[in-house]
TrEMBL record:
One of its GO terms (molecular function) is DNA-binding transcription factor activity. Residues 31-151 form the Cyclic nucleotide-binding domain. The keyword Transcription regulation applies. It comes from Dechloromonas aromatica (strain RCB). This is Cyclic nucleotide-binding protein. Keywords: DNA-binding, Transcription, Transcription regulation. Residues 165-237 form the HTH crp-type domain. InterPro entries: cNMP-bd_dom, cNMP-bd_dom_sf, Env_Response_Regulators, HTH_CRP, RmlC-like_jellyroll, WH-like_DNA-bd_sf, WH_DNA-bd_sf. GO terms for cellular component: cytosol.
C-alpha cells in the first residue's frame, strides 16, 4: 500500500473516532455490553479520548489514578522500570482490553507505567462515573469483578511459568496463546508476533538474546519457521507436544 493510501486510511480512522462517537465506542467494549443507551450516555459524559503516539507514555509510576482506561485501537505495554534502566513488561494491552481498574478501586498511585507500542486511541473513564454505575447495575459489578479476577488468574499463571517452566516452555506457551482455538490442531499455521521481540522477551521474563536463541533452537528442530515477525508452525500438535516433553 502506498504512503498516500496509508495516510488516507489513518485520516479516516481518526475521523471515525471523534468525541461525538464515544457512546458508540463504549458500546463495542465487552465490559460495557448490556448497558442501556442512557447508561452509556452517562458514562460518555465522563469519558475522554486520549490519542497517543508510538513511544509516548500514557501514565508513569507514581501518577494518581483518576479512573481506568480502555484501548480502542493500537497497542500498549504496562511495565516496571528499575533505577538502572532495566525494564520488565507486565502486560501487553490489545484493543478492547481495559486496564487500571484495580488501582482505581484501591485509590493508590500507579505502580507501573503505560507506554504506546503503536499509535493508539485510549478512552479514560472517570472514577466517579464508574462508582455511580456500580451502585445502579449489579451486572456491571459482576463484569468488573470478573475482569479483575481474570487479571489475577493471569498473574498467578505468570508466577507459575516463571517459577516452574523452562524458557522454551514459556515461549511455546506464548505462541499457543497467540493462536485461535480453532488452530490448535492445525498444520502450517502462520502467526504474526503481537509486539517486537524485546517486549515479548521481557513479558516472558527472558532476555532478548535468550528469546532469540530459543526461537533458533525451535527452528533447528523444524518446529517453527521464523520470518521476521511472522512465525510459521508446520504442526501445532507437534509444537505443543514439545512443550510438554
Amino acid at each position: 500500500m502506498d504512503v498516500d493510501n496509508q495516510s488516507s486510511l489513518r485520516g479516516e480512522r481518526v475521523r471515525d473516532y471523534q468525541p461525538v462517537q464515544i457512546v458508540s465506542l463504549l458500546s463495542r467494549i465487552p465490559l460495557f455490553e448490556g448497558l442501556s443507551e442512557d447508561e452509556l450516555a452517562r458514562l460518555a459524559k465522563s469519558t475522554r479520548e486520549v490519542r497517543i503516539s508510538k513511544g509516548e507514555t500514557l501514565f508513569r509510576r507514581g501518577d494518581p489514578s483518576t479512573g481506568f482506561h480502555v484501548l480502542v485501537y493500537g497497542q500498549m505495554k504496562l511495565a516496571l522500570s528499575s533505577v538502572q534502566g532495566t525494564e520488565k513488561v507486565v502486560e501487553i494491552i490489545q484493543p478492547g482490553q481495559s486496564f487500571g481498574e484495580a488501582i482505581m478501586f484501591m485509590e493508590k498511585p500507579y505502580f507501573v507505567f503505560a507506554q504506546a507500542l503503536s499509535d493508539s486511541l485510549v478512552l479514560h473513564v472517570s472514577k466517579a462515573a464508574i462508582y455511580e454505575e456500580l451502585e445502579n447495575d449489579h451486572a456491571f459489578v459482576r463484569k468488573m469483578l470478573a475482569g479483575m479476577a481474570m487479571r489475577l488468574h493471569q498473574l498467578m499463571t505468570d508466577v507459575e511459568a516463571y517459577s516452574l517452566h523452562s524458557g522454551t516452555q514459556r515461549v511455546i506457551g506464548f505462541l499457543m496463546h497467540e493462536l485461535a482455538e480453532s488452530q490448535l490442531n492445525d498444520d502450517n499455521v502462520v502467526l504474526e508476533l503481537s509486539a517486537n521481540k524485546g517486549v515479548i522477551a521481557s513479558r516472558l521474563n527472558l532476555t532478548q538474546e535468550h528469546f532469540s536463541r530459543i526461537l533458533h533452537d525451535l527452528s533447528s528442530l523444524g518446529l517453527i519457521v521464523v520470518e521476521g515477525k511472522r512465525i510459521r508452525i508446520p504442526s501445532v500438535p507437534k509444537l505443543r507436544t514439545h512443550q510438554l516433553a
